[in-house]
Automatic annotation (TrEMBL):
This is PH domain-containing protein. SMART domains: PH (SM00233). The keyword Coiled coil applies. Residues 207-241 form a coiled coil. Keywords: Coiled coil. Residues 7-23 have a biased composition (Low complexity). Residues 1-23 are annotated as: Disordered.
Length: 265
């Protein structure tokens, strides 16, 4: 009976191991299959989509916050059709819009008095750089810069500022608005904080040891002062005694002289 139970348990363990191995191998084969990676293979087609569903109320609430807590705002020229190819974008027109940068969201309005934004750009993991004018035609802006989501600058958004200083300010603000960058900065600050905390604890211990040494040395100084005061008192008494003894000897001599003088008289 015991041997049959042992064989049945062994068979169950073997079946379980076989099932686990089969499932893991099937998952591995599915993971490595072409069907599993088909969305990534079609990524260029996905990037060509121009519209997605989004919560309008949430965006409007963020736009209200952006009016109050924005990092950068001002008028910028936006090239219409800048997400198309270079041949069409070179002949596209510029439109003046009011832009507001809030965290990693870039809103643009018809003008500064508009209540609702006309559009929104998500700036997470984006790239921003200066752009040279494409031609010397009338109406071509000089202080241009682009916002793209790939390193090669494809499908970039072209904007232009009134001055080079404003353009550089917008580029710096856009390059530092990424949430991932803030997370990395937070981790770096936490690492520095831990290091400074350790240094502070070490310095606190050293300070406590130094305070103990100072107290011990202060006690020794007090003892030395007491000994010095006792020595001064003893020295003062000895000096007075020696002076008194000298005075007594002189008085004796004077008395002897006086007695001799009296005897002669």
């Amino acid at each position: 009976m015991q041997s049959s139970l042992y064989h049945s348990n062994q068979s169950n363990v073997t079946n379980t191991h076989t099932t686990t191995t089969t499932s893991s191998s099937s998952l591995r084969s599915r993971f490595l299959s072409s069907d599993y990676w088909s969305p990534l293979k079609n990524w260029p087609l996905i990037m060509q989509r121009t519209s997605f569903k989004i919560n309008d109320d949430h965006i409007l609430n963020l736009a209200i916050k952006a009016r109050l807590e924005n990092r950068e705002c001002g008028y910028l020229y936006r090239r219409c059709g800048s997400n198309q190819d270079s041949s069409s974008s070179s002949s596209a027109k510029w439109q003046l819009k009011w832009f507001i940068l809030y965290q990693n969201l870039l809103f643009y309005y018809e003008n500064v008095n508009a209540t609702k934004p006309q559009g929104l750009y998500l700036l997470e993991t984006c790239y921003s750089a200066r752009v040279a004018p494409k031609n010397n035609k009338d109406g071509e802006k000089l202080n241009c810069f682009s916002i793209s989501y790939t390193r090669d600058g494809r499908n970039s958004i072209e904007l232009a500022a009134e001055s080079d200083m404003e353009r550089q300010a917008w580029i710096d603000a856009i390059q530092t608005c990424s949430y991932n960058r803030h997370v990395s900065l937070k981790d770096e600050i936490e690492t520095k904080y831990l290091h400074l905390s350790q240094v502070y604890e070490t310095e606190t211990k050293s300070k406590y040891q130094y305070m103990q040494q100072v107290e011990e040395l202060s006690g020794e100084v007090r003892e030395l002062r007491k000994e010095l005061s006792r020595y001064r008192r003893q020295h003062h008494l000895l000096r007075h005694r020696s002076i008194a003894e000298e005075d007594s000897e002189e008085i004796r001599k004077i008395k002897k002289v006086q007695s001799l003088c009296r005897g002669w008289l």
